[in-house]
Amino acid sequence: MNFLALLLGLATERMLTHLFHLREFRWLDPLFDQHLRRLRKARRWLAVGLTLLLLLLLVAPVAAASLLLWDEFLRIPYFLCAVVVLLFSLGPRDLDEEVEGYLAALESGDLDTQRQIAEELLERAPPETPIACTEAVERAIYAQANNRIFGVVFWFLLLGPTGAWAFRVADLMRHRVAVRAAGQGDGQGDGDTMVGEAPAAMGEAVRTLHALLAWIPSRLLMLGYVLAGNFEEAMAGWRGADPDVSRPFAEGSGEIVARVGIAASGRSILDVGNVAEALDRLRGARSLVMRTLWMIWCPVIAVLTLYEWLV
How many domains does the chain have? Predict the structure, then answer.
């Protein structure tokens, strides 16, 4: 049933783009900011525990609803609940739509729109030069695919609506940390904007918890990139021990996913030249992400679901 809910949710999402702003859950930002302030003096693993506790409290209503509907005579209500939760757990912004917007701005030479969309994808100020900005956006497409789509799908299939919402809450907290670190916060609260302080002093616990939840789906996503793209180049990129990828645990998965995705595309990481080539690279990144979802993940999930039904 979760597979059917997944297919319906992914298909329905394309018809509800006008409602995507509801998935940003801005009303949770003050709660996240208050939590980050409480983590200032907490030891690392205590901070992780407190962050886990907050996540469990926010996930509890969805878990309770799922348990109440988990009955043979309530399959249809459970199915509808699963689809709705999945729809609100994906994103929050549509990756394909943002890439399309960036491509249109790049083609028309609209630098302001390019930087605006790049800032959303990178969750920080983009590089100044157009070439560096396009390179950063290409890497972000591969990495954000895990945060916005594949991580949600993995936990949805593993734990149903509860798993999908848990991953989304963790990613919302991580995103809030990134926004605060980049100085993009709204400045609300008790006068403390926490700009530049969140990742070093308070955000590490949030990013560690998110990295724990993202670790398995990120590896499965890289395997999908390998199978959907240039196999030899992708495997070489995965195996290669590059010092640039030797980062803290909370940051490593995103960098490795981007590295394997670029390698799977069959292009050099520093080979961005003119606008036409930049457009081709970004379209290739979007295409690889979609192929991995529809041609690798969905068929495998369908086979596993069919096997479960038969046995």
Answer: 1
